[in-house]
Design goal:
CATH architecture of the largest domain: Up-down Bundle
Helix content: over 70%
Order of helices and strands: HHHHHHHHHHHHHHHHHH
CATH topology of the largest domain: Growth Hormone, Chain: A
Radius of gyration: 21 Å
Structural class: mainly alpha
Strand content: under 5%
């Protein structure tokens, strides 16, 4: 099998940008606008219900869709049909959500979006271990990680532009993601390699061993480190508005909402910078585990700043350092996972399980943050708790055996050796 890295990375970047643009634009602007109109004074509780229930889809769908794609045989290979189908289904779900006018309708619509959009965003990751040599996994992780901040910025801008015409905004996001999915499916198609790779096992057999990859020592600890670090990060980011309203001393002419926008922009810029820097460096020096440890420690440091100095400048410093730390983590985290990925023949399923380590913390973090603020001593307790959890993330990745990472990095298959840029 001969694959070119350039088209695969292009496909990954395009799909992630427009996927996270849809998620960001809907979740931050369009959906809250609809919920406010539908629920009035109960909008806060209604939005929490909608996002909380819909999170179930983002946890359950990726490994199942990945498993089914592992067993798919088509003229375009295993992955491309699922990426295209997921894109079309997501577009339909976005249009449906844009037409909803009640809380139950919004819940169903957002649940469907969460279920369908995670099909392509997860399955595209399978191209990394299957068709990109290990020595370029850091670059692939960087490209994938860049989709989040770039897409988030694009999505918020589009959402804000169509806040007064919500249905039009949804249609635009739907069209953009459908086109991106079609382009991605075309770029990742592989009629030669995938058809022979399909194993004749039933989906039921795969479901029985859904989490079997976590029995492998190194993969399990990479999964745990990702989940723990994201948990610490989301505990702070999810309470940003409340921290700025109740804890940080803001300038008299600056509202909390304006402060969120300013700090968020700084954070995303530094996330992008950290992602661009870390992946290629990890590929060059070959110490992916060390980069994960360093980014986790840096995130811990960022959370101490506003604890010791609860001021607006300190919060901006925290946003900058925390953003760079998260970006550095994004640039190597996926690369480390794909390097130690068990060779089970179910890369789609196993990376779908790995996707849970990204989404589950987003569900748990608000609960833990609330407990820290309300029961453990207010916002100082929140910063301490989140910092301790981030520190724990750096310690857990040390359980990954460095020798295994090095061995797997060098273990490029004959097919991978033929990959060309």
């Amino acid at each position: 099998m001969r694959s070119r890295v350039g088209p695969l990375l292009t496909a990954m970047f395009v799909l992630n940008v427009f996927g996270y643009a849809a998620v960001g634009g809907v979740l931050q602007i369009l959906l809250p606008t609809q919920v406010r109109e539908a629920a009035g004074d109960g909008a806060t509780s209604a939005l929490a219900l909608i996002t909380g229930v819909s999170a179930i889809a983002s946890l359950a769908v990726p490994p199942i869709a990945g498993l089914l794609s592992d067993r798919t045989s088509s003229r375009w290979g295993r992955r491309a049909p699922w990426i295209l189908g997921g894109g079309v289904a997501t577009a339909a779900a976005l249009v449906l959500l844009g037409l909803a006018g009640s809380v139950p309708g919004l819940l169903v619509g957002w649940f469907l979006v969460q279920a369908t959009i995670n099909i392509g965003l997860n399955i595209i990751l399978s191209a990394i271990p299957e068709r990109i040599p290990a020595r370029r996994h850091g670059l692939a992780s960087t490209v994938q990680g860049l989709g989040l901040p770039v897409g988030a910025i694009l999505g918020v801008q589009l959402g804000a532009a169509f806040a007064g015409s919500v249905a039009v905004g949804y249609v635009l996001l739907a069209v953009l993601f459908a086109v991106a999915s079609a382009l991605c499916a075309f770029l990742v198609r592989d009629p030669h390699g995938d058809r022979q790779a399909v194993e004749r096992r039933t989906p039921a057999a795969g479901l029985r061993t859904m989490f079997g990859s976590l029995r492998f020592h190194d993969y399990r600890w990479v999964f745990i480190s990702r989940a723990v670090l994201y948990l610490g990060y989301n505990m702070i980011s999810g309470f940003g508005l409340y921290i700025l309203q109740d804890h940080i001393r803001l300038p008299a002419d600056l509202t909390a909402a304006e402060a969120v926008a300013t700090s968020g922009t700084i954070n995303l810029v530094l996330v992008t910078l950290g992602t661009v820097v870390s992946g290629p460096l990890a590929d060059r020096f070959g110490h992916h585990r060390a980069f994960v440890v360093a980014s986790s420690l840096l995130l811990t440091v960022s959370m101490v700043v506003p604890l010791a100095w609860p001021s607006w400048p300190a919060y901006l410093v925290q946003a900058a350092i925390g953003g760079f730390a998260l970006g550095a983590f994004l640039g190597v985290d996926l690369a480390l996972a794909t390097i130690v990925l068990p060779r089970t023949g179910d890369a789609g399923r196993d990376l779908g399980v790995f996707h849970i380590a990204l989404n589950a913390p987003q569900v748990i973090a608000p609960f833990l943050a609330s407990v820290a603020v309300n029961s453990l001593g207010g916002y100082p307790a929140l910063f301490l708790s989140a910092g301790a959890i981030a520190l724990l993330g750096s310690l857990t990745v040390l359980r990954v055996r460095s020798g295994t990472v090095t061995d797997n990095k060098e273990a490029v298959t004959d097919d991978q050796e033929m990959v060309q840029v």
